[in-house]
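A quick aside before the break. I want you to see a complete sequence-to-structure record at least once, exactly as it would be stored in a machine-readable document. Don't worry about memorizing anything.
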Amino acid sequence: SFSSSGAVTLEGNKTINVTLGLNKTNTLPVTAYYRVKGNASMGLDYDALSGEVNFAASQASQTIAINLLDDDLEDPNESVILELYGAIGGNLGSTLVYTLGIQDNKLPSAYFVQPELKVEEKQQAITPEIELSRATTQTVTVNYALGGTAENSKDYQHTIQALSFPAGTTR
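That is the input. The structure line, written in tokens, reads:
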């Protein structure tokens, strides 16, 4: 079985090692078979995987190396899912699915146009401006928090904690 049910990483040229373990000592070789699923594209997002893992006699664990590739595309979150489906010489354990979440590394950054705002006590309203560093092909949601010595509900009223920027916009 897999040692964990998954992980999340940023897209990039790197290797993610997934550990597969046997639940008891084997005196003969064991071969485990897995399927590759998910919405990431083989050859574009990761190198091809063999679909099998071989354990030598007395070997308790083995790794599957997922070689991630850094493409030039703006991608939504993607995944590579490994699903154990059979074994020769041993039995499958309890964790049969491993999901590697891949987050795009080309999203724009968000920033306050004016990082610090000072207002008079009786000022009616203020609208802080947030911009993206560049337009993107997908909707970007930015979560933010306000800080300082003023207290929400006492000194000001603020309820929005996230802004969404439609594809193609920066403001």
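Two observations worth writing down. The mean pLDDT is 89. The chain has no helices and eleven strands. We'll return to this after the break.
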